[in-house]
């Protein structure tokens, strides 16, 4: 039996919209810091303290939203794969990998992409078999763009975190700020593409629900009907 995934999709869209706005704010904050660090006139201790406070607040809030993004995405991702498992029996991976793959080193570089791609392809293949007039709506290219941006942003984020922790001199802080800006510039289109990928799949998943709902209605209307299948 399929489980409703619509609210989880809405949660992802909301949280990534917030992350988009926060990254815009973070870019402005980092540009202000970069400008201060490279100021010809220099900067006062008070300016440095205000800058540090602003940067710390933005970083803490953004980190919290990042955690929620991961949680909400994995919850949606696993349920979407669970639903597909209910109607398609030849999927490449078990439902648990939709969550577990994110936490396994090396595997997390490609397995989530494989599962998302499978969601896109197999869901529409199934719908096409049931509804002959169905026209495909999902473009796998967007899954590739999503994953490429995800890998780049994750890589830059890790480098930025390491540089921020070790930065002591102005030169090191400036270098860390540049990496942070690069990460934020990649994260903005990443947020947009994730929202598109989720919206597109959610629309198709509704078709899947409609098909299964109609099947259940047919069975309930014909309780004595024996249905046989051949492979």
How would you describe what is shown here?
The protein is mainly alpha-helical. The longest helix has 52 residues. It contains six helices and no strands. The protein is elongated, with a radius of gyration of 23 Å. It starts with 5 loop residues before the first helix and ends in a 10-residue tail after the last helix.
Layout of helices and strands:
Blueprint: H1 6-37, H2 45-87, H3 97-100, H4 111-130, H5 140-166, H6 170-221
Describe the structure in brief.
The protein is mostly helical and 231 residues long. The chain is 77% helix and 0% strand. The two termini are 22 Å apart.
| Overall mean confidence score, pLDDT | 90
Unreliable spans: 225-231
How many DSSP-defined strands?
0
Strand content: under 5%
Radius of gyration: 23 Å
List keywords for this structure.
single chain, 231 residues, mainly alpha, 6 helices
């Amino acid at each position: 039996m399929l489980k409703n995934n619509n609210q989880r999709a809405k949660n992802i869209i909301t949280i990534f919209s917030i992350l988009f706005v926060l990254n815009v704010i973070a870019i402005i904050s980092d540009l202000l810091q970069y400008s201060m660090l490279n100021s010809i006139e220099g900067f006062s201790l008070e300016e440095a303290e205000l800058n540090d406070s602003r940067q710390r607040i933005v970083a803490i809030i953004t980190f919290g939203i990042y955690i929620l993004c991961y949680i909400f995405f994995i919850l949606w991702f696993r349920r979407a794969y669970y639903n597909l498992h209910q109607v398609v029996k030849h999927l490449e991976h078990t439902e648990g990998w939709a969550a577990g793959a994110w936490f396994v080193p090396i595997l997390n570089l490609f397995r989530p992409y494989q599962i998302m791609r499978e969601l896109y392809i197999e869901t529409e293949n199934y719908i096409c078999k049931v509804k002959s007039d169905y026209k495909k709506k999902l473009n796998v290219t967007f899954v590739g763009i999503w994953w490429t941006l995800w890998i780049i942003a994750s890589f830059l984020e890790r480098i930025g975190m390491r540089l921020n922790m070790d930065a002591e001199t102005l030169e090191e802080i400036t270098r860390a700020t540049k990496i942070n800006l690069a990460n934020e510039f990649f994260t903005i289109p990443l947020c947009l593409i994730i929202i598109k990928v989720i919206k597109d799949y959610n629309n198709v998943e509704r078709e899947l629900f409609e098909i299964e709902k109609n099947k259940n209605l047919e069975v309930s209307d014909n309780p004595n009907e024996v249905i046989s299948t051949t492979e």
